[in-house]
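Morning!

This is the sequence you dropped in the shared folder:
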Amino acid sequence: MVVIRLARGGAKKRPFYQIIAADKRCPRDGRNLEVLGYFNPIATGGEKRIVMDLNKINDWMSKGAQASDRVKSLIVEFKKTQTTEAAA
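The structure's back. C-alpha cells below.
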C-alpha cells in the first residue's frame, strides 16, 4: 500500500519535512517513490511554510494512496492559503 506522509529532515531542533509518497513498509526517512512537496514548520519572514504539488497528490490518491492525518490537515491549510493568495 502506498501512503502519503512526512519524512523528517533538517538539523536538531530545526525540523524540515518533505511530503512524500512511499510504501507503507518502508521506514519514515527511508526510500520513497516521489517527493510531492515540503513543510517548514518554523518558517519566518519571506519563507514559504507549505509547498506541495496538488496535481501529483490527487494523482496518487486516485491510484489508491492514503494520506496520513497530518498530511490531510496540511492539504486543507495549503488550499486555504491558495484561495487567500488568489483573492488578494
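Headline: The chain has a mean pLDDT of 93.

More detail when I'm at my desk.
O.
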